[in-house]
Specification:
Layout (H helix, E strand, L loop, with lengths): L1 H32 L1 H22 L7 H17 L2 H21 L6 H25 L4 H26 L3 E3 L3 E5 H19 L7 H29 L14 H5 L2 H15 L1
Antiparallel strand pairs: 1-2
Helix pairs in contact: 1-2, 1-6, 2-3, 2-5, 3-4, 3-5, 4-5, 5-6, 5-10, 6-7, 6-8, 6-10, 7-8, 8-10
């Protein structure tokens, strides 16, 4: 029966990969171009992801426009000034979100305002770090490495969990995730980063392993966090842009965490 489960799992994974191909091609193009084109593309994805989050908790009446403005502040700060300016933008975004919220004809509750700030910290800061990582030395290549390691971590955890999974990782949040899948995913993501690093003569094998392990360790946390958010919202997927395979946030949940780890680890290694 195990081979049958793996075959069915492989079929499902193929469908999931097929839905992610357009997003992957878009990411490759944006990362390769860089600059403001990359920032604008990240903003569009961020708007979609924030909208998905707000839709999951529509009952809280989140200040949607305020969230988009806060996201714009964070991404402009990332493109023009780096971490200090991003921190300033995050602090300022609380005031901006509050002011826009109270000026709106529809009253926004404190939980709604808190949801907007959660979105800016989770999605906004994650996407801002993607811009800052792209702007570092060899940044475009490192962004690709982080994305590849994140994807292979998820893939390794998926297959490893189906083949060897026995101990549930977080049964109250995501019953399908297993400890065995987590460990095999970390191994796969680390190895993927090392193999990717072989194509870059400026990246040592040790640095590639450090980057890969850091990304592979953090990526599952991003996936688990989104599962927690969806469970709280009582939904299966964050959106429907990819049909039965969810929304943008479902595809980028792990990246929102792993890209942050990639930025700080690579900054330390430079």
């Amino acid at each position: 029966m195990r081979w049958l489960e793996l075959r069915n799992g492989g079929s499902d994974l193929t469908a999931r990969v097929a839905t992610a191909v357009p997003l992957a091609l878009l990411a490759i193009a944006l990362v390769a171009i860089g600059g403001w084109v990359f920032a604008i593309g990240i903003f569009v994805l961020g708007v979609i992801a924030l909208r998905e989050l707000f839709s999951m908790f529509e009952r809280l009446s989140p200040p949607i426009l305020a969230g988009f403005v806060g996201l714009l502040l964070l991404l402009v700060a990332a493109e023009t000034g780096g971490p200090p300016r991003v921190l300033m933008a995050l602090v300022a975004s609380l005031a901006v979100v509050f002011l826009i919220s109270i000026s709106d004809h529809q009253a926004t509750s404190l939980p709604g305002l808190a949801l907007a700030m959660l979105g800016l910290i989770w999605i906004g800061l994650g996407f801002a770090h993607a811009i800052m990582l792209r702007d570092l030395e060899h940044g475009s290549a490192i962004v690709f490495l982080v994305l590849i390691a994140t994807f292979l971590t998820d893939t390794g955890a998926y297959f490893g969990g189906r083949a060897f999974g026995k101990r549930q990782l977080a049964p109250t949040i995501s019953p399908a995730k297993t400890v065995e899948g987590l460990l095999l995913g970390i191994l796969a993501g680390t190895a993927a980063a090392w193999f990717t690093g072989l194509y870059f003569d400026w990246l040592s094998g040790v640095d590639a392993l450090i980057l890969g392990f850091s990304v592979a360790l953090v990526a599952p946390l991003g996936d688990l966090f989104e599962s927690y958010v969806k469970r709280e919202a009582g939904v299966k997927d964050s959106g429907t842009i990819f049909g039965a395979h969810g929304g943008v946030l479902d595809r980028l949940d792990a990246v929102c965490f792993s890209i942050v780890a990639g930025y700080y680890v690579w900054s330390a290694l430079l």
